[in-house]
Amino acid sequence: MFSRFLNVYCRVIDVLIAVALAIMVVLVFGNVVLRYGFNSGITMSEELSRWLFVWVTFLGAIVAMKEGSHLGSDTLVSKLSVTGQKVCLVLSHILMLFVCWLLFKGSYDQVLINWDTTSAVMEASMGIFYACGMVLAVSGALILVDRMVRLAQGRLADSELIGVRESEEEPIDVPAPIK
Prior knowledge:
With 179 residues, the protein is mainly α.
């Protein structure tokens, strides 16, 4: 049930990312055309595009975590037994939960510090800018806890024990070294 919620949540994030990217393209392209063609511009274009870029980055990290798309190395873990892979998964998830806590705490502190500060052009609270870290931390923690619960219930497939997804491209054949 909760895994379905996370799937829908990530689909909504995908849509938000697409909308934000479209807005960024329109703002930046429109601003370039207005500046060079008509010697004017959209005042908030640069600032809003910067904010959207940061939010897109953090939201994309949530989706990548859910899909197992982050960079990683599975050289050692893939050589372990299934039990060893499970132990490594639990240990790595505990460490990542700690990092989520650190990210949440730091972002929360920044939101509180900057809540009354407004941005230069849009005059929006800078707390909104820093809140993306809190969203990533909470969402990431929920994804990690979901995986650990599924592991404890025996519903986590062995293929999910290694957090690195193979490239979709064909591997390159490298000749053996000459002896």
